[in-house]
Design goal:
single chain, hypothetical protein PF0899 fold, binds zinc ion, 3-stranded antiparallel sheet, elongated, 3-stranded mixed sheet, 2 helices, alpha+beta
């Protein structure tokens, strides 16, 4: 249920940037390696935004490709179909380096 805390942060960031104006939509980027579920975020969003300037605002989701860092040759490479083998040195020791977060990309407000 970590979607609750990320949704709270999303709402806080969106309201801060809206500066009192009503929010029309919020564009989110979700990393492919993160475990955030769109539907859960949307559910919490409806609940948390009720009674705020963000009530009724639409959430738009975009995906960010996952990226891994090889622990042996220290090169970054994109994740392809959950294949965690480094294409440079064939090492299987890699850690997520990108695409594991969820963040607010932009917001739209009603003028
Ligand atoms: Zn490597």
């Amino acid at each position: 249920m970590h979607e609750l805390s990320i949704t709270e942060s999303i709402l806080e960031i969106a309201l801060r940037h809206a500066a009192g104006r009503r929010l029309a939509s919020v564009h989110l980027v979700i990393g492919e390696l993160s475990s955030y579920v769109d539907e859960s975020i949307e559910l919490f969003w409806k609940e948390l935004s009720t009674g705020t300037a963000a009530e009724g605002a639409v959430l738009q989701f975009a995906r960010e490709p996952g990226e891994l860092l090889c622990l042996d040759c220290h090169q970054r490479f994109p994740v392809r179909s959950r294949d965690f083998i480094c294409p440079h040195c064939q090492s299987a020791s890699a850690l997520p380096a990108g695409g594991k977060d969820c963040y607010v990309d932009s917001i739209e407000v009603f003028e």
